[in-house]
UniProtKB/TrEMBL annotation:
One Gene Ontology molecular-function label: guanyl-nucleotide exchange factor activity
UniProt keyword annotation of Cell membrane present: no
Alphabetized PANTHER family for the sequence: NUCLEAR FUSION PROTEIN FUS2, SH3 DOMAIN-CONTAINING PROTEIN
One of the record's GO cellular component terms: cytoplasm
Entry protein name: BAR domain-containing protein
The keyword 4Fe-4S is assigned to this record: no
Length: 306
């Protein structure tokens, strides 16, 4: 068996590698390792195969590029049509709202829905004001207690030589009021007042959106009704279809809100009543802690004077 050295590769001539070329030749150390183990032959691609794969990759890239461009153009066209349709609907709603405001056209009025919407808006506004004022109250009380602790520390520093016991007890009582009683009050307010009301406010978002959508559909219905009254005979069928669809959509939203808004209002009033009672009880408990704290300091002062 003859060995031929070629370009740092050693080619072993035998009957099993008679068709070996420069493209599929493997190094000697890999060939030896493969023969002593069960390692399969390493795949080696010829230059022609590499060129063919590169061409296929380029062609597939071009095809996918043009397909993606076609999809983008189709999507752009759809978005353009959608925007034009939306603009036409919004302009029709604005013109209908203006004409109704100036009394130039008839406007559908539902007294029952207006009453339910007013109640919904009123309790939504009250919930937001209540939770904001509750946080404002907590911040004001915190500032008050911190100021009391600072004043007590100043008294302790000033009177530590003359009467050390009273200033120390006074400072300790004010710190206990801030760290214990006020912390308990804040925890009670968060869990029993702020969190339920914030959750209730989040639940009001969807009905509010539905009410806005209902007003838009009402404008569409009034606009379609006005257009149906003005069209000619040959266009009456198409206008009647548009009117029926607008009426059906408006009445569906209107009936859904008339059914759900009273239920939401009643449950919201119940939750609000519970939160208001929790706020009053928490504030009363905090005032009792403050009274006990002040009474303790006064008893110390009376004992020292006696």
């Amino acid at each position: 068996m003859a060995l031929i050295k070629r370009r740092r590769f050693i080619l072993v001539h035998s009957t099993s590698n008679a068709n070996v070329t420069d493209d599929n030749m493997e190094p000697y150390h890999i060939s030896t390792y493969r023969r002593t183990t069960s390692m399969p032959p390493l795949p080696r691609l010829s230059s022609a195969n590499l060129i063919r794969q590169e061409q296929q990759h380029c062609s597939s890239h071009l095809v996918s590029k043009y397909q993606r461009r076609d999809k983008d153009e189709a999507l752009t066209n759809k978005l353009y049509k959608l925007n034009m349709h939306t603009m036409r609907k919004k302009s029709a709603r604005i013109s209908m709202r203006l004409s109704s405001a100036f009394g130039l056209s008839a406007h559908t009025i539902d007294e029952r829905f207006n009453f339910e919407e007013q109640r919904f808006r009123a309790i939504d506004k009250f919930l937001r004001l209540f939770v904001r004022n509750a946080y404002t109250c907590m911040e004001a009380l915190k500032e008050t207690f911190v100021t009391q602790v600072n004043v007590a520390e100043d008294f302790e520093e000033l009177l530590s030589d003359k009467m050390p016991d009273l200033p120390q007890q006074f400072t300790r009582s004010k710190r206990s009021l801030l760290e214990n009683a006020f912390t308990e009050f804040c925890t009670h307010m968060e869990s029993c007042v702020a969190n339920p009301i914030n959750t209730l406010i989040k639940l009001f978002v969807l009905p509010s959106n539905l009410i806005s959508k209902r007003h838009d559909k009402l404008l569409d219905y009034d606009s379609a009704q006005s257009a149906y009254e003005k069209v000619k005979d040959q266009q009456s069928r198409q206008a009647k279809q548009v009117l029926d669809l607008a009426k059906k959509t408006y009445e569906a939203l209107n009936s859904q809100l008339l059914e759900e808004l009273p239920i939401l209002y009643e449950h919201s009033c119940e939750i609000l009543s519970i939160c208001l009672k929790a706020f009053i009880s928490g504030h009363l408990r905090l005032m009792q802690h403050m009274k006990t704290n002040i009474q303790y300091v006064l008893n110390l002062l009376i004992h020292i004077n006696n």
